[in-house]
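HNH nuclease domain-containing protein
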Amino acid sequence: MPGLRVLPDKICKTCGAAFNRRVMPNGRRQDVKLFLAQEHCSRTCGNSRKVLKPKSYLWRARKHRKDTCEACGYKQRLTVHHCDQDQTNNDPENLQTLCSHCHDFWHAMAKRLGKKVAGRMVCLGSEKE
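Tokens:
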């Protein structure tokens, strides 16, 4: 057929399967522009959310954030510290709520001591009575 563009297969970002332009129910092929913009082989793969971006990990970690810094008790500029340094591990046991000062201090201290993993920061103040 004249005018039929043959395009190379694309690889799905989620499952790694090769795919090409779809054939519509009326027998025509999928539009070239739509195909070139497509990143997944199907809607199922596109909606699986298997490929997470750093902001997704941050959002998931923030769900476990507490109201005060676990080290000093400060209530502002709170961040989530991943004790094992793995941003994808959002297990509540791996997360610690720290203010930005304690978080920066803890990572700087670990770096000075030559540790690759900072671990959990200890409580600096006395517990509420």
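The longest strand covers residues 78-82.
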